[in-house]
Structure formats: C-alpha cells, structure tokens
Amino acid sequence: MEGLIGRSSKIMLQRIQTKSIIKPNLLNLRPHRSFSYSVSAKLINSNVESNEQKETSRIPLNLVHSEILRASLSFVPKYGWSVESLSHGANSLGYPSVSHGLFPRGGVELIEWFLEDSRRKMVNELIDKMDGLKIHQKIRLACITRLNYTKPYVKKWSEALAIMAQPNNVQTSIEHLAKLVDDMWYLAGDKSADVSNIIMYRDVQNIMDTFLNIPMMNWYTKRGSLAVIYSSTELYMTQDISPDYTGTFQFLDHRLQDIATFGRVVGEIDTFVGFVTKSLVGVLASGLEILINKVATPEL
Amino acid sequence: MLIPIGIGLLRPLISSKSRLTYSGIFRGFASSTSQRTSDRQSIKKDDEKEAETNFGFKYVPESMKEKLVGQVFTNVASKYDVMNDAMSLGIHRLWKDYFIRTMAPGPGTKLLDVAGGTGDIAMGFLNYCKEIHGDTSAQVTLLDINPKMLDVGRERFNKTPYNQTSQIQFEIGNAENLSTISSNSFDVYTIAFGIRNCTHIDRVLSEAYRVLRPGGRFMCLEFGKVQNPIISSIYNLYSFQIIPVLGQVIAADRDSYQYLVESIQRFPSQDKFTEMIKDTGFTVIDKGWEDLTFGISAIHSGFKL
Question: In this structure, what is the dihedral angle of CA atoms B9, B12, B17, B18, given to the nearest 10 degrees?
Fold first, then answer.
C-alpha cells in the first residue's frame, strides 16, 4: 500500500490528520478542500475571529469594525449596501462619518460581513436542534433558518447579488456560498467522506475520469447541488410577494425533491458537475438581471 | 543643458526681488562666489552644536529649516497655483480630487486642513459636501505656518460663496505644535504636500493624533518614490532638469523649485512613512497607502481608534 501512495497524497493525509486532532468531530477525514476553514473549531472556540485570521475571507479583526458593520445593517433597507449605510452606521455609534474609510471596498465589505455573520448565527442556532430529523429535513431546516436572516434585507438583496456578481467580488461570493453549503451539510451529519480518500495523481491519464468515479465525488456533488438550490431559492425570495414567503418555501421543497430524484443518476455525473458550476454562475448573473429589471421598472 | 546655464548666468539680471536671502549655500548652475564660501564656513561652526536636518540635498541646523522653508513659500506664494499646474501638467488637480473622493466625507464633517496654503483641499472638500450631499454644515479650518500663503488662500475664498461663512476659517499655526486646536475636536485631518517641509515629522503625526476624534481619519497626500525603473528615470529627468527651469521662467525663482524636487527625494518612502504613522498610534488599513500615477504621489491614511 505504501508504494502506491504518492508523496503529495502523504502530505495531504498528514495535513488532514493534524486537522482532525485539533477538531474533535464526527468525521474522521475530510476530503482535501480548496477553502481552508474549520466549522467545529468555531463551535468550540468562542473567539471566532482569531481563528479566521488565516482564512480567505477578510473578516475584520478589530472589534470596532464589527460594531460599525453591525450598526450599518440597520441602515441597509434605506440606503442599500453602500458607503452611505456605513457612514450612517458609524455615525450612530458616535464615530465621524469618514470612519467608513475603515472599509475601503465599501458596500461589499458589509455584504461579506453579513454573509459571514449569518452563517455563524445559523450554525450556532442549529447545532442543538438537529436531533431526530432525517437528513433532507435537516437540510430543509438549515436552508429555512438561513433564508430567514435575509428577510429584513430582501428588498435590497438583489442589489447585493448584483454587487457580488461583479468580477472583483465573484471569487469571495462563491467562497461564502461554498462555506455556507459545507456548514449546512456538516450540520446535517454528512458522512460521505468516511471512506479512504487518497487520490493517486501518478499514472493517471485522464484525471477527470478517475476523479469522477471515486466515492469522494459525492462530497462535491452534494455541496454543489445544495449551493444551486440555496442560491436559486434566495433569488426567488427577492421577488416573492406571497404572504409570509410561503412561495419561497414551496420553491425550496420542489428543488429538494428534484435533487432527490435526479441526484442518484451516476452516469450523468460529469455533465451534472458541469451543470452545477454553470448554474452557479448563471444564478449570480440572474441576480444582476433581476436588479436591472427592478431598476427599469421601479416598484412602489 | 546650455539653457539652464545661460539662465543661471543671467539670473542676477532677471530676478532681483525674489532672491533667497538666507546665509546658507544654494546650489545652482552658477558658480558660488566668495561671499558664499565665507557663509559656508560660518555655518560649519553652528553645525557642531546642533542636530542637522535635510533641506533639499543640503543639511542645515534643525532650527533653521523652518525659517528657510518659510522663505521658500513666501517667495512662491503668489505664483504657487500657476506653478503647480505647470509642473504637474494639471495632474495635481486629479490627485486632489481623488483624495477628496477617497475621504468621501458625510454631511457635517469637520476638517482640519494643515499646511493648507492656498486652499485646494479645503475648497474641494466644501464643494464635495455641497454637491454630493447638498450640505452646508461642513466646516474646514485652514491652517498654515506661512501668512503669505494664507493670504493667497483668503483671496481665493473671497470669490466663492463660502466667503464670510462659518464654513471656512483661517488660522496661522505650526503643524508640529497645534496649540490653538483642542484635542479630540476634528473628524478629519489632512495635510497635502506639506509634511515633507516639516522639520519633525513625528511631532506632526502626534499632534494629528491628538486633535482627531476617536474614529477620525488622518489623510496625507505626499510625493512618493516611484518603483518602476523606467518611469523613475523619466520622472527624475523631468524633476531635476525641467522643473527648476520652469520655476525660473514662470516664477523667477529657480532655487525654490530646486528645493522642491530635492525635498521630494529626501522624504521617506511610502512604506517607511506608513511605519511612522503606525508608530504614532494610528490604525492602518491594509497596506496603508495608495500610489497615484505610478507612485509619484501617494495617499496615506490612518484612523484613530
């Protein structure tokens, strides 16, 4: 067995093992992820921000940053995800309006912080409530909980999606979505990574074939499909006028049923993955379109 | 190269009023006279007792730098704006405009514009507040050490609707010791192209920290070092060959503009200056500075938190 394990896989295995020492969780191994974060470490460690210093999303380190961002959220329904909201937020705390300069990229930083904060809130809220539910029910509960956090800002959410779809911001917005979806599956007790996950990069002519046929592919398809479900539901919510967002929740249920039906067709996996990735980009672009439509036909 | 020499030799004929009269050595293409060599020797005796600082490429006792800089600006005050446009080909207006847009002040902001001189930043700030927010409660205190520069600023503001309103106030003061300004009283502190003329930059920074409110922003627009070697060589050629000549032709004062380009070389680089800002206690976001025009100038920023 030793001879078959490539050096890169050994290093990966060591990295994975050290991670599992740090975080005692249900899963023994996690597939190598391109995003580095740890959910369970967050749950144990109340000082989340110091953990996330090394991570790809730029979470503010300073307490003042978070205070101003939190205060700015209450101005978002009026001024949108913009420097104006940040100025008013700073003012409300007694800082001068030029303190918005603490966030040089402007409204985007407010959106990113909101995404991060909502994700944390979702995890903290649901970590105890997942007993006795089946997996698809847990996923449904996670999606609904997360969607509820967007409700106060739903009128300005299409603006947020349009900002996130800008080329500068696409990378971080996809990262946030990926982290969200990973957390949802973690809460649902995803055990798809329990099998031995060592990939052999040597002696492989077509990496994609090997990649797609191993059990670990499940990990990616689950997250990919949930990402599409969640983001399309959120998009639906921005133009949902049904009372109490019942339309949105029906839409969510229908999408979850679709995935349950189609997700097991193994033969279609490579086209499915392609579909998932393209859909993700398509969803973000649809957000932009919806915003343009809204601008063209202003609502009362 | 012949033109500068020719003008240098003709200088006694061209400029009679605005000759710098300090007893230091000024370098030009004309050769030094015996009068100047004896002054050089008397300076040497003073140097042994006092610490020295840079005045362009020369070293002068610290106590003298303020006076020398004062003379420079008294001489250039009347032609300051014209020369700025000529030397930077109008680009300084873009820099200052971008500077104010980066600041993006909200309504009712109080600005302290130090070394504000002829009031470019102050004017731009008030215009921004009026145009973007429709706000007339923004206030700016224009502070400068040189009365002549302030007079030119006052004249400029006389022609604007801000004249005689509470929105603009003029004060004479020294950036290193803002004795007339109380602590925690301003939202924004700006110093545009002024800090390199100050003798003790760290004192300027600590005074800036003192007068700002918590959450307040320190912003500095200053010349910087160009990293790109090609642009750097073109820029150096332009600075040392063309700018002093322009100074001679337009303002009849070559030496002041020679001092200008030399002082740019002497000012610390962007990252060193950012370290100084951090050492004072300001919170610096990301890199701490933003290069404009390949680093010819840079916006430095810090927050008092």
Answer: 30
- Does B175 carry a binding-site annotation? yes
Q: Give the burial string for B93-125 (b: 16+ CB within 10 Å, else e).
A: eebbeebbebbbbbebbbbbbbbbbbbbbbbbb
What phi, psi does A55 have (nearest 5°)? -90, 170
Between strands B110-114 and B139-144, the pairing is: parallel
Return d(Cα B114, Cα B208) in angstroms, integer: 9
CA–CA–CA angle A195, A200, A205 (5° rounding): 130
In the prediction, which pLDDT does B5 show? 52
Q: Fill in the amino acid letter for A292.
A: I
Using a CB-CB distance cutoff of 8 angstroms, which residues of chain B are in contact with residue A98? 103-106, 109, 187-188, 215-217
Q: Mean pLDDT across chain A, nearest whole number? A: 73
Of the candidates A64, A83, A97, which has its C-beta nearest B109's C-beta?
A: A97
ipTM: 0.77
The whole-number average pLDDT for the span B216-233 is 94
Domain ranges of chain B: 2-47, 53-303
Phi, psi of B142 (to 5 degrees): -95, 115
Structure token pair of residue B124: 């731009």
Measure CA of the first residue to CA of the last residue in chain A; give whole Å. 68
Residue B101: pLDDT band with limits 50, 70, 90 = very high
**pLDDT over 70 for what percent of chain B?**
84
Q: Which of B211, B213, B282 to mutate to test the interface with A (most CBs of A within 10 A)?
A: B213
Q: Do B109 and A62 touch (CB under 8 A)?
A: no
Q: Which CATH class is domain B53-303?
A: alpha beta
Q: Looking at beta carbons, which residues of chain A come within 8 Å of B284?
A: none
Tokens describing residue A54? 């090394």
User: What are the tens digits of pLDDT across the range A269-285?
Assistant: 555 566 666 677 777 77
B51 known ligand binder: no
Q: Which residues of chain A have pLDDT under 70?
A: 1-62, 190-218, 261-278, 295-300
* CA-based nearest residue to A183, from A280, A50, A41: A41
Q: Do the annotations mark residue B163 as ligand-binding? A: no
Query: In this predicted model, what pLDDT tens digit does every residue of B235-248 receive, in sequence order?
Result: 999 999 999 998 89
Nearest to A95 among B107, B215, B286 (CB): B215
Radius of gyration of chain A (CA): 21
3-state secondary structure of B221: strand
* C-alpha–C-alpha distance, residues A206 and A210, integer Å: 7
pLDDT (0 to 100) of residue B173: 92
pTM, rounded to two decimals: 0.72
Judge: A101–B104 Cβ closer than 8 Å, yes or no. yes
DSSP string of B48-102?
TTS-EEEETTEEEEHHHHHHHHHHHHHHHGGGHHHHHHHHHTTHHHHHHHHHHHH
